[in-house]
Amino acid sequence: xxxLALVASACSSGGGDASSGQxxxxxxxxxxxxxxxxxxxxxxxxxxxxxxxxxxEATERVGPYGLDGYGGPIAFEVEEAMDxxxxxxxxxxxxxxxxETTNSESAAQTDSGGESGDGEFTTTNVxxxxxxxxxxxxxxxxxxxxxxxxxxxxxDLSGDEPVLTDQLTLSEGWAHELFFDGDRAIVFTNGGQWGxxxxxxRFETSTVGDVADDAEESFASxxxxxxxxxxxxxxxxxDLSNPERLELSSSLRMQGEYLSARRVGDSIRMAMxxxxxxxxxxxxxxxxxxxxxxxxxxxxxxDTVIEDWxxxxxxxxxxxxxxxxxxxxxxxxxPAEFAGFDIVSVLSFDIAxxxxxSGDGAAVLASGRTVYSSMDRFYVATTQWAPIAFTDGxxxxxxxxxxxxxxxxxxxxxxxxxxxxxxxxxxxVPGSLLNQFSMDEHDGYLRIITTDGSPWSDRQxxxxxxxxMSEDGDQLVQVGQVGxxxxxxxxxxxxxxxxxxxxxxxxxxxxxxxxxLSDPTNPTVTGELKIPGVSTYLHPISDTLVLGIGQDAxxxxxxxxxxxxxxxxxxxxxxxxxAVWTKPGAYSNAEYDHRAFLYLPDSGTAILxxxxxxxxxxxxxLLRIGEDSITEIGSVTHIEPSAEPTSxxxxxxxxxxxxxxxxFWIAQEGGRVQLCGEGDVGGYGDYYCDPIPVDxxxxxxxxxxxxxxxxxxxxxxxxxxxxxxxxxxxxxxxRQQIQRSMVIDGSLWTFSWDKLQANDLDxxxxxxxxxxxxxxxx
Length: 778
Prior knowledge:
This protein is mainly β. It is 8% helix and 45% strand. It has 7 helices and 54 strands. The strands form 13 sheets. The protein has a 6-stranded mixed beta sheet, with no helix packed on it. Strands 11-12-15-16-19-20 form a 6-stranded antiparallel beta sheet, with no helix packed on it. A hairpin with a 2-residue loop joins strand 19 and strand 20 (320-325). It is globular, with a radius of gyration of 27 Å. The protein starts with a helix and ends with a strand. The relative contact order is 0.13.
């Protein structure tokens, strides 16, 4: 995790001057002969005009190897020196409440949660009050909807005891997350490949010179697969009206990658980024063929149609399938300065209506990664590298200068409740973005924290800055800036709350900064505290106290285990660390995923998962937070004493399968293969079990496996719930690691991939436990 955070940091020259790098509302970042501009966007009236524009940009940048590096603001002509990663994780931090007046009442508590009858329940820990975020588990007090890997479970809490009424296997995607309301759940996921063969004859046969003898070589289907493949994002609508029979109402598959979503009232906004179709580029066999390959690729671009560049969708509902472009060409904006061929889309859905279309929205011809949303603005940002001119011998012979040169582009969309998302403005700032908590909007101003420079470089030129931006027409322009944070270090966490902000940087020690944001044209650093370790997640708990969760560290910067710090910021000029709690050799998911953290302001209780790799222990910790103290109350765990595992399903011995099949190997090498039918809960003790519908076993495991399973059924037709489960021992108890916590009617509910468990919040005694086995095929 620390390595990812280091990669997330970046660099560029310039100090804390609020006017540096700003020209007429467009940020110019100059280094030698390089100039990057993030500025005004324009729309096109029709697809023909848009296609002509894209072809022109692509023709200008295509080479003998296609459009390598087209995802950045400038097309790179040589291989990138390092991989861009970790700079835009959308999972860190917690809710941004009013720090002066309401922050003592957490968004995870009943003020932003709700009531169920006479009871109370907590909700997902979010960045902005009133702006919900999707998660792997949700509750409305009467029921819990949870997704464990690919299985969605419905737990009814309305009776005397909780009941797992039904489960539904989501057969596509990974890392699912959801919203739910009334009788409908909306699930988001990435996964699968979008594949469509290119129409026969659409692209003319091309030729290219061979390196050896410059012979003519046909560009035919035996050289390049005529199909194209693209990442796929999916949205599923689940019918919850019958808790005992969950059903998939509709599915929307789209070309691209799902980034994140937000919900305000009934309106859901979803962001995704889509690369263009993988065109069948002609690759030369050597330098002698490069010129002709480039010419052929230029001709290929000339033959493209609009569907090759903009994402498509496939909607399945009520037995009907609809396909087409994800949004109209008149809803796609493109920068005046080239920003790549990816498309960032912001789609709008109404949870009360469900998934009935591909979603209204708008898009930008640019890259996107990090999502932040206020009540009325939805922002998508991405960090880009400077162009390769830095290192091609023309501008600089120092590759370090290129590695330290980044810019972050930001695109703003309006999200008024009664209309779809609409593009409003774009802008850019120097440096790289850490995560969604590096952005915040207050009183119409966007505050964004970025880091110039490479903190792992020997140059040690990194510096973190806060920039304040406002909308000027269709541009985000800089109105204020303060720098000088963590010189030579990397940004690890940030929190911006109304008129105050906090930032933590780290290399060997943890400087904790307090910022005064009351004057948007003149933000200032008011205080600084240097302590060992690093806080990767900041949670304000009162007007004067901020909780930091991260890692303790030696004076040399080597991390040693989980650390929780309590900062007193009553005097912004002199912040102090008034309490520390540590757990050597441990870490917490809450360090990098704010949704894993829970704070109960009435009792001053912080709840966070932990994994102690030194002692092979994991669970959820409860800490009592005082004015100047952190006290461990206790912990709960999902780890159970070892017992002989049992299952409702019928075991299949290795001898049942041919020796050259994977099913034989699984059963032979300590795993378990079992046949489950209707009514079988499934699972096998603490084993990890992967369900495969019987009808699909041949696709997964080969025709031999399909024949064996068919023989086992003895001619009977496989039912919709008949499945084969492939089970492996759970090494290291990873399935029992707690992912989330919530409080419902005085019970602490904890969720792991393996089960849901309820403990009495006061005594921590076990109340209920629900095994989350395998679901039915969806």
